[in-house]
Amino acid sequence: MISAEIIDRQCKKCTQNMPYFDQTYCLGFYDGKLQNALHQLKYQKRLAYAHGLTSIWNNVMSEHINELEADFLMPVPLSSEKLKLRGFNQSWELLRRIQCKSSIRKTPYILKRHHHHEQHAGSSLLIRQANIRDAFYLERDSLSLLQNKSVIVFDDVMTSGATLDEIARILKDNGVLRVMNWVLLRTTKTSF
Predict the structure, then answer these.
(1) Domain of residue 176, CATH code
(2) How much is the pTM?
(3) For a tag on the chain, would you pick the N or C end, based on fewer CB atoms within 10 A?
């Protein structure tokens, strides 16, 4: 199934129910050595792993993404409560080290997240979508900056795509024309 998705350049779920985002670029799958490195970053707070992971991203992905046009590059945000608990946003730590065109503005401040107590791990796609609905919002002072712009959203892991789809919905509902995802790792689980 994965090989057919690669050939078609679209996953089966996306052909059945078109997402709000326009495109997704992913470095690799959520298994093996890269998964371990990401766990060291996220759960052991070893920030040096952010440098190693983005070095791989920059070496592997640069030829695929260097010519992409966009106005903003922003991380999937953590809620302020989760940020206090973890001490950093792993998506921002990775994103800020990614090499991209100088015309793309990197910002962790425009996209915000309300705090939710529900956990997504092990949840079905429908539960993930319901839990994430209206979890994100945009900084009011930045709304005019986003009008008719192209935005790249960076996340460390894409599981069902529910989070990235909800972010794309919020961005497009507020005037963004195009939303692309850059994702470090994608899970291979296909039954959500």
Answers:
(1) 3.40.50
(2) 0.86
(3) N
